[in-house]
Amino acid sequence: MNKTFFLLVVIAAMFTGCGLQKQPAIGKHLLKTQNHHIVNGYGDTILLRGMGLGGWMLQEGYMFKLGFIGQQYRIREHIENLVGAEETEKFYDAWLDLHTRKADIDSMAALGFNSIRLPMHYNLYTLAVEDEPVAGEQTWLEQGFARTDSLLAWCKVNEIYLILDLHAAPGGQGHDLNISDRNLDKPSFWESEANRQKTIALWRKLAERYADEEWIGGYDVLNETNWGFEDPEDRLGVHETKNVPLKEFLVQVTQAIREVDTNHIVFLEGNGFANNYRGIVPDWDDNMVLSFHKYGNPNTKASIQQFLDLREKYNIPLWLGESGENSNTWFTEAIVLCEAHGIGWAWWQNKKMGINQPWEIEKPEGYDRLLSYWKGEGEKPSKEETLHTLNAWLDNLKLENNNFRADVVDAMFRQVESNDTRPFKNRKYSKGDVIQAVDFDLGKQGFAYFDKDTASYHFTPGMDTQGNRGWSYRNDGVDIKEDTAGYYVFHIEDGEWLQYTVDIVSDDIDRLLLHVADPKGSGRIRVSINDVEVDGIVYVPQTTDETDWTHVSVPIADLKQGENMIKITAEKGGFTFKALGL
């Protein structure tokens, strides 16, 4: 090969297509900070859209209707008291095997998530300080590292970033006991230098292991500190003005990470549940992101202004590292707010018992009996009965046995971009079919439905709202209850409405049959078809109670074949609504 030809080959290799291609930095997928943004090796801005794997390595009681018990170690004690230490150990090993598998990560990628936040419990990676054979030394446990390796491998296949989050630090980093599995009988994270040194050593070990991994998105080094350093009465740390111990730790852990890993982002969380950054910034490293958390407050620019100000002042990117636990309306509004300001997000959480996350874990057979005993309200179940319930619970953890909450995902992705509505169930209807009242269209408040109370502002004084009062069936603002015959809409207020887009295959439907109940007999309904109001008000007859269903026939012009839009409006509320007969 002559030199001229060789030079042409080299030049050609530098160009593809019709233009000069950007050349990646070290690792084309590796994330770095650049002014206000997170970028990859090509310099492309990456907006993280993520989900937290809460409940896998760390159980919080509320996730499984066990809030009355609290921390994971106490849940474990309750189980052990019924089935013994050996069976409890088997249960927790199986829990880690089944709760999160490759199928879960595949599904998250398919839904549109590009990142995962892993809430880690330190006790899967190292012994507790008090259990170390030699004081001051660190014993490493392979289980946590191996499971993290597997998770990373699944993320790589799906091109999803994995952000490591130390959720339960040695000793526990706050007064909210559940989120860190804190035991009050032992020194806390902030009361023990040995606990803090163990944490620093753990992060150095993790950083050394993953230093060159492109799909590690970064290190969220300490979740939601809530501690009064200056004023012990400020138990949650929301009023601290200096946060000296927290900053000292964050600087030390960053230095330990940088000894072995100069590649990855370090995510900073402030005091007061990652909302109090007084005394913590300016930053001390050129590859850091400020991570704030947001729950139960209005989705206005004012609600995040303090973080936008910090970003501007210190030229540091922002990340909403944890949010959720609310209605679909709140989800959509929060994500729209963040993305309008170039802020990525990680929702909490992927699966639990409940309806406000993508996947729901069903309560297993016998679970209510187990809870009743633990509450002191029922008889003690036998070991065999308890094991049957625990095994059924483990089976319900599997993705294929979870209930998919399409309305939640729709609110987090499609509704962020569109006001369009879609049928809740894709099926065709003919005369005699029934549409359940709770199957109103998928879409935003004001487009698929209108409810006067669509979100919970539980951390905002003076805003006494609940969102969905029933927390059943779906996570929109509409209030839904369940009885022995199924689900129905209740707490219907004046002016609220529901929209149903239905695909009609017959041309002989000339009336609607409203399945309603009203103990007061004061309800009044207006019906419209394809935006044309049907003549006359529908008066709801008085019934004995809110589930004593009566059928009210509403004459209409024949529905056309194909798509029709039916709208049910409460001119006067107070009634309940079960179904719509065709």
From TrEMBL:
- Name the UniProt key words of this record, in alphabetical order: Glycosidase, Hydrolase
UniProt cross-references to InterPro entries, sorted A to Z: CBM6, Galactose-bd-like_sf, GH, Glyco_hydro_5, Glycosyl_hydrolase_5
Family annotation (CDD domains): CBM6_cellulase-like (cd04080)
The reply to whether Hydrolase figures as a keyword in the UniProt entry is yes
Domain CBM6: from-to ranges: 475-573
Is Hydrolase one of the keywords? yes
Glycoside hydrolase family domain location:
91-352
Q: What family does this belong to?
A: Belongs to the glycosyl hydrolase 5 (cellulase A) family.
Q: What is this protein called?
A: Cellulase family glycosylhydrolase
